[in-house]
Amino acid sequence: MKRILYLFRGLLHSKGNTLTKIVSLTIGLSVGILAFGYCVFETDYDNFHKDADRIYRVDYHLPLTLLEEISREIPEVELTTALSSRIPATYHYKEHEIYGGEIRLADTSFFRLFSFRLLSGDPQALRHPDKLFISEKLAHILFGQEDPVGKEIIYNHQPLVVGGVYENFPRNSFLMYTNALHSLAGVSEEQKSAREDYSGYIRISPNANPQEVKQKIQAIIDRHTTSEQPEQYALHPLKELHLKYGWGYTSVYLVGFMGLAIVIISALNYILISISSLIQKNKEIAIHKINGANSAHIFRIFFQETVVLALLAGALTYGILAGCQPFLEELLYSSYADFFNLRVWTTIGLFFLGMVFFTGGIPARIFASIPVLQIFRQVSLHRRAWKYILLWIQFFSTCLLLTLLLIFSKQYNYLMNKNLGYETRDLYYTQIACGYPYPSLTSVRDEIKRLPFITDAAFVHTLPLWTPRTTVCNSEQQAIFESSYLYADDGLLRLLEIPFVEGDTTHLPAASGEVWVNEKFRDRLAANPQATSPLSLGAHTVTPRGVFWDFQVASLYVAQQPLVIFPLEEPDTCHNYYLLFKSSQMTAENMTVWKEKMQEVCKQSNFHLWYYPYTHQNAYEAEKDMCTTVEIITYLALVIVLLGLFGFTGDEVARRTKEIAVRKVNGASVLSITLLLLRNICLLALCALPFGLAGAYYMGSYWLDEFAWRIPLSVWLLTGGAAITFGVIVGTVLLKSRQGIKTQPAEALKNE
Asked: What pLDDT does residue 466 have?
């Protein structure tokens, strides 16, 4: 008990150092735990499925007939299932209506291949085209405490019977946003043979070679194509799908690196402050040693201090994570329960113990190894090397993080302000769900255009941000290049203010096979000697009729793509449509008028209006989140470094108090003494900053390589991070050393 009281008395005696250490460890632990939980969560996607390591996806746009043939002819394939792409849906039951849900078409093997738990119902119900399986969440919203099985709901104006309820898909599943499954039994034979938006999933036998299975699948595909260059299908492991596209792995690496960096910075900062406080601890150490304490005793005293501070920091970390839970869950788009399981908490516990031994062991070992006769003399040189090494690492890390923050912010602003080639100002859109008994799309568009506050309107089957792609083949069915495509009416280009550069631009006849293409498409044709007419795109035989100006389709991750615009098909039960229109007067009153007109014309009870520029911004939400994450981590790292630099500067001023006093007595100016204190720090910073810039350049280039449209890494951008870091360092030293410099020489010498 006496030892504990003595320990706490010592901690309270040095309130500033104690508080600084606790804050440093708390920040490091909080960020480290969240970063680790995030990385584990992201890399654990779909790992919960039984035999997840044997489940593969056979790329997109797989005809269902081929999947059936794969199941029959390849013995290594144990089981197959098919899924459609996500279909926006509206559900009705009595007075309840849910808009904005997502549904997929699936077959009966779905619940056998994937380990999703069925709460009620028979999976064989997916054999019937009028059956629907819904999520536990959707069942609760629509039915409350009622048993949904056997009850009829209206899905996109179609009556369907609930065949079962499944447990909500986990947040770390590729199906997390899907709240209903509809039977594939209603798909026609023609649709099964077409390259629609279906994905095939297979489970191979335990001893099967994935490469051999891939070759057998490709052989089946080759057998069913007349092209001399058939499309190559690939097998993608289920567990890798989440991180395979976009910059998934890049985000995990960056968050993991930054989390580790701030943990290291906080640990090193603790060590730096501990070593810097030796000038206050030297008398204590000397008294202990004079009274017979050996090195082990001294080590134990200071190590126990670290254990106490680490436990306090751990308690504060828990309080911060609990108190900031709503904000952090919104930032991470997930709950703590998704992040932290027993395995994660065990790893965190082991990591915490390692951090305690590291941060406590080094300074305790240094203190314990100082001979009592040298405690007031030679130890200064011994500990100064440690401090400079630690400071160098912190300066390097701060410069790295600050420069990365500038790069990420600059790239995000570039994406938000990139000229897409078409005018998005005053552009709105709404989605019209499939299955409704609409009049012709042309009549709907014309009725909406009659509203006085709407200047123009057009229908498309998908937004330009999300255009699909297909293969362009020549008359010999040889693949030439890949092209994006849109189904749109003849008002789309006029609405987007995209001019034509050549050809007939009046309208798109629906039956002639004539299409509009962009300049990139025309140039690709002109540059390819194998591009003989007629051209075929999927099931379509086409002839370019008009050429329009290039504009950006799809994501800014990819370069400008060739684009084909097909005449828009009239509504059916399998497609959704987007109505784009422009209005500079979309007030609340006009919005009500517009919604009433849409309900009148389309006979659909609910419509949602979106502002197109906001959708464009939301398409890069991941980049925004990464900027926010880097910004938070950088500021926290800066706080830690500043705390350590304050401690170091205070130690330097205390160590050189007598020297400063003597220099002032001999006529030295405040400026010369300030430069004296700054010299070593500035030299150390100048040695660290180039390495920080090199690291930021490498990591920034790695991240920017994911974008076809990216900012250049200019000298000014890179040196900006170094300049900010250097300015912060100098400012901190000046602020902390001010008090020591102002001390009167007589008072300073008296205290020596």
From this structure: 77
Angstrom distance (rounded) from CA 103 to CA 700 = 38
Q: Please state the rounded mean pLDDT for residues 257-262.
A: 81
How far apart, in whole angstroms, are the C-alpha atoms of residue 568 and residue 510?
A: 8
Q: How far apart, in whole angstroms, are the C-alpha atoms of residue 432 and residue 415?
A: 29
Q: Residue 313 in contact with residue 20, Cβ under 8 Å?
A: no
Positive/negative CA dihedral, 272, 276, 280, 284: positive
Q: What does the alpha-carbon distance between residue 250 and residue 698 come to, in Å, rounded to a whole number?
A: 13
Of residues 544, 416, 516, 501, the one with CA closest to residue 460: 516
SS3 93: strand
Each residue's pLDDT tens digit, 28-66? 888 888 888 778 777 888 888 888 888 888 875 677 777
Q: How far apart are CA 725 and CA 718, in angstroms?
A: 12
pLDDT band at 751 (very low <50, low <70, confident <90, very high): low
CA distance 483 to 472: 7
How far apart (Å, rounded) are the C-alpha atoms in residues 573 and 575?
Answer: 6
Alpha carbon of residue 216 to chain centroid: 36
Q: What is the pLDDT at residue 224?
A: 67
The partner residues of 158 in beta bridges, in order of sequence, read 155
| Chain CA centroid to CA 12, Å | 43
> Secondary structure of 445-513 in the HEC alphabet?
HHHHHCCCCCCEEEEECCCHHHCCEEEEECCCCCEEEEEEEEEECCCHHHHHCCCEEEECCCCCCCCCC
Strand duo 118-121 + 87-93: pairing: unpaired
* 510's tokens: 């629906």
Average pLDDT over residues 631-647: 78
For residue 368, pLDDT over 80 is answered with: no
Q: How far is CA 619 from the centre of its chain?
A: 11
Instruction: Copy the structure tokens of residue 259.
Output: 């989390």
- Reduce the DSSP state of residue 434 to 3 states and report it: coil
Check pLDDT > 70 for residue 749.
no
In angstroms, the CA 16 to CA 5 distance is 19
Burial of 249 (0-12, 13-18, 19+ CB in 10 A): middle
User: Using an 8 Å Cβ cutoff, are 52 and 241 in contact?
Assistant: no
| Token reading at 531 | 């591009």
pLDDT for 230: 53
Q: Give the pLDDT confidence of 127-179 residue by residue, as tens digits.
A: 888 888 888 888 888 888 888 888 888 776 678 888 889 988 887 788 877 88
H-helix or E-strand spanning residue 133: strand 131-135
- % of the chain surpassing 70 pLDDT: 74
DSSP 217-257: HHHHHHHT---SSPPPP-EEEGGGHHHHSTTHHHHHHHHHH
Taking CB atoms within 8 Å and a gap of at least 24, the contacts of 349-355 are 351/32, 351/36, 352/29, 352/310, 352/314, 355/25, 355/28, 355/29, 355/263, 355/267, 355/310
When mean pLDDT is compared across 166-180, 218-232, 423-437, 738-752, the lowest value belongs to 738-752
Q: How far apart are CA 592 and CA 583, in angstroms?
A: 14
With contact defined as beta carbons under 8 Å apart, do 583 and 514 qualify? no
C-alpha to C-alpha distance for 374 and 407, rounded to whole angstroms: 49
Residue type, 601: V
Instruction: List the structure tokens of 455.
Output: 């200047």
Measured between alpha carbons, how far is 641 from 293 in angstroms, rounded to an integer? Answer: 34
DSSP letter for each residue of 591-647: HHHHHHHHHHHH--S----EEHHHHHHHTTHHHHHHHHHHHHHHHHHHHHHHHHHHH
Average pLDDT of the residues in 539-554? 82
Evaluate whether 231 touches 471 at the Cβ level (below 8 Å): yes
